[in-house]
Amino acid sequence: MSTAYLPLLLTLGAFLFGALPASRLVEALWRVQLREVGTGNVGAGNATRERGLGAGITLAVLDGLKGLLPVLGAKWLGVDQIVVAAAGMAAVVGNNWPIIRIDRGGRGLATSVGVVVGIAPILIVWPAIWSAIGWKIGGGPGGFIGWGLLPAFTFFVDPRAFLVVLTLGLAIAMIVRRAQGNAGYSTEGVVGRVLFDDDTRATAAPRRFGGIVLALIVLAAVPVIYLLLIDTFDVDVDWTPVMVGLLLTALGTEFAAKWAFGELFREGTMQVGTPVSRAGAFRAAMVATGVARLLPAGGAVTPAAMAWTVASEARGTSGAAVRATVLNYGGLSAATGFGLAWASAMHPAVSSLALTPIGLGLGVFGLALIGFGGKLGVLLSIVPERFRSRLEPILVDHSMTLRSWLLLTARVLLEAGTLGLTLIAFDLAIKPSQVLAAFGLSQLIGGLPGLPGGLGVTEAGLVGALAVFGVPAATAATPVIVFRVLSYWLPAVGGVIAGGGRFVRHTADSQDVAEVPSVA
Question: Which one, of 459, 445, 449, 444, lies nearest residue 489 by Cα?
């Protein structure tokens, strides 16, 4: 396997390893909540002051290993020294700003010790001397002099450029983390925090953005995994300007399809008297087609995700979200079925497979689902009385207007167009009906097991569908992977950002409401 993507994977892995909450183990063993006692810092210094030398040494060793092990692993893999240094720096950043609690990590001193010991042990002499002095004069000034001036010491002892840059990065990480403190950055008292690590402010509750950040990391890692798979298949891809242009156009086409889905949802909200803005509808579509699908059986979560995204803008949009979801699946089934029937009837290569009746049946089912999507209210008559009040806002009748048909058609054709443009970029020209059928089949098959994002199943279904139309599996593998990155994983990053923004606003609104005093 090619090592072209190894630096990125090592850096990402080091960040995640550095973010591991070593303090939790010490808190459990010594029965202490470091964030709630002493300085509120989760480092070895606070652990020593509150629970003794044993707790402090244990936490220092654990935090040090978070810097040492990624560096040793990178050196063992034989990567360039710059990559080794980047992995070490990433581990410190992960420790200082972990994905679990973004603004409540440690100062990174013990983790920095592990990094320096793993790369250039002689450099640890300078911070070690000042740590010993700091034991007498106070750890704050000793830490600042030891680590803040480490780049200057490095320049005289071992002036290799990557070492000077690394120690400068470690110093900056320590200074920035001290300036931030345990209650967020403020100009008040910043000099005392930086020079003496003196944070007298009350510690603030950490912002819980961990799920958002972790999702972004996972989503960013998936394209890298796909690219590693391309290397595994030993496929030589010639990224010409024309190919890149076609793929960028395909990405734009995919976002246009998301916009059409959002407009379909927005039309439903207008029919029930709870209209949302175009921007809100687009955000809802991004969250529903990206983030919600990451969950097992994510298709069933789609309506709830859409309604939640626009809840601050309009209430009572659940029925419109259910309508848009049902119409989407109906349109996908109809287009897939009729595309399959047309491809089977018009192209002798696949006519012997008797796909025409299967396609017609799937197409009729899709049309029936579209018709049913506008008459969901009839289900209330068969729902038990005790559940009826809860389902009334969801099972709402809607009319299918000309605009609804146009949006639904655009939604399906634009998504299929993303696949078509990707295949053209890789010089694989198949008939439009075959593209439509292959796309639809892969989407329907990918949703059956309920795997996050249909990962693995959708790709296999699309490769198999293209094989039916004469594209060898080995040839189809690379464009299928690229298509999945363009059609799902990259837009899903946008969905995480949109959903994260909604989460942050919701949290802030909840805190504002909680702080409003009641009037008796």
Answer: 459
